Amino acid sequence: MIRYNHLNKFEIFLIVIAIYPGSFDPITLGHLDIIERGSRLFGIVIVAVLRNPNKTPLFTVQQRLEQISLSTQHLPNVEVDSFDGLTVGYAKMRGAQALLRGLRAISDFEVELQMAHTNKTLSTQIETVFLATSNEYSFLSSSVVREVARFGGSVDHLVPSHVALDIYQCYAQNHPVSNPIKTEVI
Ligand code: ADP
To answer: In degrees to the nearest 10, what's the CA dihedral of 150, 154, 155, 158?
Structure first.
């Protein structure tokens, strides 16, 4: 049953824009899962890479933008961009109504809730929307990926395949160890 007779044409076609901010250094399958699910909920999802001069990243902002663009090319309503300064300021500038965030564990919850409350004090118009991680990615973070790769482990099951290649190149590892435990000499 159609329940939106009272809306005018403009209101019916109002598109909710969500910003998914993060460092994505690099993008993981956990991030991608949130982006894919978010793209089914929102009209447009803008994946926004934070330019943070205080951090020394594994990949440059440009490399991360390319990695995310390639990973999301099957999603027509997903856009990739970078920003600096306050996320809320960027969201306003892009005309977004929502900030999309992922929740993995209690530790995420505390930080994310504090951030959401802070952002609410900066703009009452922008809502933070949390998506719970999918079970299979609940342990996964960019730092876990970097750590595994740094010690020669395979990250093929943690990131999109082209990102895995970038990572191996970065650590100059052409032959990652797919199961380090099996290779141990006992
Ligand atoms: P990370 O925490 O991996 O370094 P970011 O800072 O780029 O990644 O995180 C951006 C957002 O994505 C945060 O809201 C974070 O909680 C969420 N996120 C990261 N990894 C996952 C995952 N595996 N499942 C769900 N959400 C995630």
So the answer is: -130
